Amino acid sequence: MKIATFNVNGINGRLPVLLGWLAEAEPDVVCLQELKAPDEKFPRRALEAAGYGAVWHGQKSWNGVAILARGAEPLETRRALPGDSDDSHSRYIEAAVRGVLVACLYLPNGNPAPGPKFAYKLAWFERLIAHAADLLGSTAPVVLAGDFNVMPTDLDVYKPERWEGDALFRPEVRDAYQRLLAQGWTDAVRSLHPGERIYTFWDYFRNAWGRNAGLRLDHLLLSPSLADRLAAAGVDRDVRGWEKASDHAPAWIELGEPRRPQAGRRARRPRAGAD
């Protein structure tokens, strides 16, 4: 089972890129962020023609998240992060797909920091941590996938000294990410590539793509039962170089089949009269 996350930076404007990548990579499940489209403008028919069912939570001009499933219809289980009934941002959606609970999220950017936007980011992160604990408590196989807008370590950012005051790299944000992992989640890409510089985002400015001056913002976190099935993980970085591409590239994982419990061997009974 192949699960991917992709910040498309405007689903209708980047639709040829998205459809081209879906045809090439053939992921089974895809989490999308930054749709930048209201619900009625979501390109459902084009995605159906490509073989994908979808659930989505759109928003005009900003935000927006969706979950796609190849050859299936995701069963929506939640479309807002709990903890703040006044939060109107479309940043979270959850669905069951082929026995896995998929949570797609777009965590706030938070800049400038400090300030109201940064405070909102930290509060949203705390709500995510609380809900993630509940998801782990359910014992369901869960993946938290999306644009977390955080570079967890120095390996995840080009020239970290230049990002020390940024909302994506401040200690409070990295601490929140580590507290999330400490619940029992596995950062799939980092677990299989512990010492590599891997990026998922390259800015449009200052020739960031050409210089490989990137950031790793897009993550797939696995509950323990899914972490045991992790077979591969990576980033389709070449997609960032396509014409009219998003500033993000898709990150993905591959999961093996669930392990079946081994049946216990029955003790052989001695035959009558045996010594």
TrEMBL record:
Residues flagged as site, Important for catalytic activity: 218
Active site: 106, 147 (proton donor/acceptor), 248 (proton acceptor)
Transmembrane segments: none
Cofactor section: Mg(2+); Mn(2+)
Chain residues that bind Mg(2+): 7, 34, 147, 149, 247-248
Keywords for the protein's UniProt record, in alphabetical order: Hydrolase, Magnesium, Manganese, Metal-binding
Residues at the site labelled Interaction with DNA substrate: 248
Protein name per its UniProtKB record: Exodeoxyribonuclease III
Source organism of this protein record: Chelatococcus reniformis
